[in-house]
Amino acid sequence: MTTSGMPLWQQPVAVEDAVVLGSRQVGAYRNLAVQAPGIVEHARPGHFVAVAVGGPTSGLLLRRAFSIHRVEQEAVELVVAPHAPGTEWITGRAIGDRLDVVGPLGRPFPLPVDPVPCVLVGGGYGSAPLFWLADELRARGCRVEIVLGAASADRLFGVDQATACADAVTVTTDDGSAGVRGWVSDVLPEVLRRSEAAVVYACGPMAMLRSVTEQATAHGAVAQVAVEEAMACGVGVCMTCVMPVVGRDGRTRMLRSCIDGPTFRGDRVRWDAFGADGICRVPDDCVGAPTGGH
Amino acid sequence: MSATDAPVREVDLAVELAGMRLPNPILTASGCAANGKELHRFFDISGLGAFVTKTVMAAPRSGRGTPRMAETPSGMLNSIGLQGPGIEAFCAEDLPWLAAVGARVLVSVAGGTADEFAAVAAALTSSPGWPAVVGIEVNISCPNVASRGLVFAIDAAASGAVVAAVRAAVPRGIPVFAKLSPDVTDLAAIAQSCVTSGADGLTLINTTLGMAIDVDRMRPHLAGITGGLSGPAIRPIAVRAIWQVRSAMADGRMPTVPIIGVGGVRTGRDALELAAAGAAAIQVGTATFNDPTAPARVRDELAALLRAKGYAAFTDVVGAAHPRAGE
């Protein structure tokens, strides 16, 4: 069922003291399955969960956000890249351990009404939610192509799953250790052309989402991107995961990626605000933009 | 909905602060609970003593760029920049919603000038949600403003001027609380100025100014460079601030008014510590980011802890760690 039409405070959400049911290494990543029936019940492709680190006395207070890889009976599956103490703690959970998981959170991917061709693009483990999405799209009669890119072969996620669930798969790696040497943006124009894609779904780093949006727009397709912004809470109260997005009224606002995203129409995101230095500035024409500084 | 929805009744948790009657002493903290809808998914916010709103100013504000947050040991830095919808949208949408769900609301207000503070507070009275307002919290201490380091709360006279303007703009019977910064040399002097200027109570403390550097990028971690430190890491600073001001009141150095304690409360035991230092009510802030049910959980843990310790009422522990008169 869909709950996207409901007011926020009526949308179902679960806080689960979830038992780890499975944990396996997939390349550079850890694929965790946790028992969370309250999350499974309402989860859709593009939803995410927020995971607490280290237990109730932990000094690491902030939740880590992960898109839902897939749901299976009562289990929610996540893909986690261990790159700092918080994510290392999460990937270190053994079967039978517990994880404090809140979800489902955010807005799932909007699905096309008509059975139009779709291209799904994943950078690194950002591909995690795409295979579930592909199943849903194909169930609606959409032809689905998947493009997966990463720095190297071990940082690709889900090539086997893509082969199983898509009509065609293209792989790129920066170092050429798998697939085409290069970036997804090197192969995407040809994929868009031959597939006659109407919608492009993408998850991954900001720079990749920007180029996917530009290429999709040039092709005449709609880009739906799922962003990976740093969050403290994941539930809409901390105001740290904001980004500038243009609304239907044409005005830019700093929107919370946890509530108004993580999926946005790519052509609504103010990519010009994101600097190479990792800082996103408030555009001057943003509603309530600082005049003397905030 | 969870079992934490209904307050435990065995211990009398009711409090009265400067005429503000609340069924229990646990509140949200401004800026840690948005304006209610987000947390109402997790627990009934009308079951809190009161809901403290995100600080509202006159005009809509975008806040700062990102990164706005850095995780620190047992805490975090934030540099939001008072993002908000502005008082007009707040009065039309947020406050009526809070009233509709039965929340008691402590509205946090701010401005660039004393007049803006007063205008924001005055505008509340025309909101359809005004009957839900039980008090005003005057945020003179947010470190994330352009003139940071020059917040009103570091100057006794400037703090007093803002409080006086708000007090004059708000109807009698609605208490005004001044929220103070711990980043001052003589906290009691600033507290005294606020109270003699008309503050009915004090909220102690706002975040304390901090900074983190991203040594991979070799630049300040936050887009705003500095940020407010919060979380359990600053609880000892909150306890110290509450203790100092409560002591100043007990010594007759300033009039006695109720103190709302805030800073690093994660458990019922933490709340009890702030109460023992002199807090008549306690706000739960950053812990909510870790556990979205934290305000309701802390309320229930506090009730259970008081019961286990044999207290009949929460009011029995307010200031209980201070020497009693005559000792």
Structure write-up:
The complex is a heterodimer of chains A (294) and B (327). Chain A has helices at 37-40, 85-91, 130-139, 159-165, 184-195, 206-219; strands at 14-26, 29-35, 48-51, 64-67, 70-72, 75-80, 98-105, 118-123, 144-150, 168-173, 180-181, 199-203, 222-226, 242-246, 252-256, 263-265. Chain A has 294 residues and is of the alpha/beta class. Chain A folds into 2 domains: 8-105, Elongation Factor Tu (Ef-tu), domain 3, CATH 2.40.30.10; 118-228, Nucleotide-binding domain of ferredoxin-NADP reductase (FNR) module (Rossmann fold, 3-Layer(aba) Sandwich). In chain A, the strands form 3 sheets. In chain A, strands 4-3-7-1-2-6-5 form a 7-stranded antiparallel beta sheet. In chain A, strand 9 (144-150), helix 4 and strand 10 (168-173) form a beta-alpha-beta unit. The relative contact order of chain A is 0.13. In chain B, helix 3 (114-124) packs parallel to helix 4 (156-169). Chain B has an 8-stranded parallel beta sheet. Chain B has a 4-stranded antiparallel beta sheet with strand order 5-6-14-11, with no helix packed on it. In chain B, strands 1-2 form a two-stranded antiparallel ribbon. Chain B has 9 helices and 16 strands. Chain B starts with 14 loop residues before the first strand and ends in a 19-residue tail after the last helix. Chain B has helices spanning 37-40, 87-100, 114-124, 156-169, 187-196, 235-250, 268-277, 287-290, 294-308; strands spanning 15-17, 20-22, 26-28, 51-52, 69-72, 75-78, 105-109, 133-139, 176-180, 201-204, 208-211, 213-214, 219-220, 226-230, 259-262, 281-284. Chain B has one domain (3-63, 81-208, 231-317): TIM Barrel (Alpha-Beta Barrel). The chains are: A alpha/beta (294), B alpha/beta (327). Chains A and B meet through loops of A and helix 1, strand 6 and helix 8 of B.
